[in-house]
Amino acid sequence: MNALLSVSNKEGLADFGRSLLQLGVELYATGGTERALSQASLPVHSLQELTGFPELLDGRVKTLHPHVHAGILARRDEPRHLDQLAERGVRLIDMVVVNLYPFSDQVAAGHAGPQALEAIDIGGVALLRAAAKNYEHVLPVVRPADYPTVIEELQRPDGAGPAFRRHLAAAAFAHTAAYDTAIAEHLGACSPAQALPAELAIGGRKLRDLRYGENPHQAAALYVTVQGRGLAGARQWQGLELSYNNLLDAQAAWALINDFQRPAAAIVKHANPCGVAQAPDLCEAYEKALGCDPRSAFGGIVALNRPVDGDTAERLTGTFLEVVVAPSFAPQALEILARRPKLRVLQPGTGPAVPEVDARPVTGGLLVQTADRSG
């Protein structure tokens, strides 16, 4: 059994490689991955032993070679395929272990132009798609978290089962789809304004699982897009773990409050505003918003469009609240809010308060509209 490894994320690589070797798997790897395995004192073959060809164009072309893709895509139950490989001395590749260049991390770090383009993985995507297409014969492995399970499956008397192979293939295609979506989103943001696209790609990377969804029996998670900013990229200064409903209400309040130019406060509960007000200073704006419906505001989410100072923080602690969202917090304000240790205090990342595109599911499709910026 032959495995080709080319990973950007080296987490768990050495242990995984060691376990594969113990199962009699031959390891082939690209440059950085080969070095990492060699430094762990693991025997590994270079990619060039498969291709007979060196890397080109500063590494832009290394795995895009017929000896690589033929070894992956050949059907083991098709004698003609095996005969063609034998005629050309091409080795079968039975496992592809790939995770892609961290494009989203580069964009989130502020890189653009040539730097962002160099972070677009071409060969890795092609390897994963080839392996996933031929999943009945080749294992596509994209997540380091799956390494232990892959080893367990290979240790079975009859090897990895059909359901597990299909699971890995689905994970690989989901990974490449989200990756391409991030690239399209980034390049689209740099393009002139245009009508909604003919083909819509929506994707993201799971940031974390949430305790549950709108109701306790519903699963939920927070995904982050390539921009990685706004509420999904918020800094949480303190408080309990955020829930699905917390995030929904926080987004509604944050979007609402950023429509105001003067100091303003909004209180939202169950997606409904309990009070909104503006005033010459932030503390007064919050007091007026609270005065709209103090009873409904109990356990609500407050959004403010100015940095929170000590006076405003003092007033905020006078009512039970779930979340406070603001562009920033003065050190004194954070000390005061800490008196309510369960209160979630959020400072959103940079970027617009409203997503550029609003997409909502309907059975069989999506309703999509551009952001409402008329106000």
Concise synopsis of the structure shown:
This protein is α/β, with parallel strands linked by helices and 375 residues long.
**CATH-assigned fold name of the largest domain:** Rossmann fold
Number of strands: 15
Count the domains.
Answer: 2
Helix-and-strand structural type: alpha/beta
CATH class of the largest domain: Alpha Beta
Oligomeric assembly: single chain
List keywords for this structure.
375 residues, alpha/beta, Rossmann fold, Cytidine Deaminase, domain 2, 2 domains, six-stranded mixed sheet, 38% helix
Please characterize this protein's 3D structure:
The chain has 375 residues and is an alpha/beta fold. The chain has 2 domains: 2-189, Methylglyoxal synthase-like domain (Rossmann fold), CATH 3.40.50.1380; 215-347, AICAR transformylase, duplication domain (Cytidine Deaminase, domain 2, 3-Layer(aba) Sandwich), CATH 3.40.140. Helix content is 38%, strand content 20%. It has 15 helices and 15 strands. Helix 4 packs parallel to helix 8 and helix 14 (310-316) runs parallel beside helix 15 (331-337). The longest helix has 28 residues, at 162-189.
Secondary-structure blueprint:
Layout: E1 2-7, H1 13-22, E2 26-29, H2 31-39, E3 45-46, H3 48-51, H4 66-73, H5 79-88, E4 95-99, H6 103-108, H7 114-118, H8 123-133, E5 139-141, H9 147-154, H10 162-189, E6 205-210, E7 220-224, E8 235-238, H11 244-257, E9 264-269, E10 272-278, H12 282-292, H13 294-297, E11 300-304, H14 310-316, E12 321-325, H15 331-337, E13 344-347, E14 357-362, E15 365-370
Parallel strand pairs: 1-2, 1-4, 2-3, 4-5, 11-12, 12-13
Antiparallel strand pairs: 6-7, 8-13, 9-10, 9-11, 14-15
